[in-house]
Amino acid sequence: MKPIFIDILNELEQKMEKLDTISLESTVVVGIYLASILIAVEEGPSQAEFLQKWIVYSSVRGLPAKIFSMPFKWLATHRPEVLSFFWQHLREFCASSCENASGAGIRAHIAALLTDMVNVADVTEECMERQLLPALIALLYDDDICVREAALSSWGSMTRCCVVRGLACGAHCWPPMEQWLGGRTLSHREAARLAESLALLVLPTVDDRAVSEQAVSLLCALCHHPTLSAEWVSSLTPGLQLAVHHCRQHPAILPALRKLEESVQTGAMSQYKSSIEALLNAAGSDVSVSPRDLPRPTTNLQAAQEVGRRVTQIFHQSKTNINLQNIFKKKT
Q1: Distance (Å, rounded) from C-alpha 237 to C-alpha 188?
Q2: Whether residue 320 has pLDDT greater than 80
Q3: Which residue blocks in the chain are alpha helix, DSSP H?
Q4: Alpha carbon distance 196, 200 (integer Å)
Q5: Which of 158, 74, 60 is nearest to 115 (CA)?
Q6: Per its UniProt record, what InterPro entries does this chain match (predicted)?
Q7: Distance (Å, rounded) from C-alpha 114 to C-alpha 69?
Q8: What is the mean pLDDT of residues 44-69?
């Protein structure tokens, strides 16, 4: 069988090098050969060389990650030690690709492969902890923004996988992201990608596991970021809607929404004003208590804080026409 596959692969490789048009179906042979014949007849170095070569071809031609994620799914079930070896090599390849002009594309493709694989395969906890998590952390700190964006999606998928499967290594996914978020200025694209990943983590799992409070905390932390913009608010809103619906008692939700409420009063972010106010009303209400029965502030300090919040809101709405009497009418 090997000579037949080699002939097909050589022909496909020639088309790749000549930049000829190729069909996606013709690339299936790469994964079949990788997960069957190659690991049976070749030693580790030859296996790694084959994987590296076709990862490069795939990244250059923009081929989908499922070319490798599907054979990796089979390896995760039947040959987990081989999958672990492949990912060890991919980690090393990521590090060495930093010296290559096309290295960023390769690393972004590997991040996409990681995302696709953990979404379809039951990777062993040992492989996730020893290979995938270190690879992911390195990609999060990459110098190229496209690689970091892809890594943020990978982090969301991997963390969600750990939560759904109840893996102990899931606890190791949070500290790197908390450190990463706390020590850098995010671009709009990075913030959007992170918000999408956190929204996925806010969703309860099918077997009714509790909502991840760590995901809600990170989502709320994004609301306080100094570089908040209209693009950020657009990306944060879906996750905040889920957080308010599933975990409204989380202590960080109301402060985060009030911060957004202040930010959306003017400028480009004002288009999200009604959405944020609706979320704030939902987060501040209790479905088991009627609005007339909601408790009033019990101390002078709480009352003053509430009035101060309303004053700030109205000042943002109209800095030139302020009626103090109307301010306190809103309170009563």
Answers
A1: 14
A2: no
A3: 2-17, 28-33, 39-41, 44-61, 66-78, 80-96, 103-120, 125-127, 133-140, 145-165, 174-182, 188-202, 213-223, 230-247, 253-263, 273-284, 300-317, 324-331
A4: 6
A5: 158
A6: ARM-like, ARM-type_fold
A7: 8
A8: 94
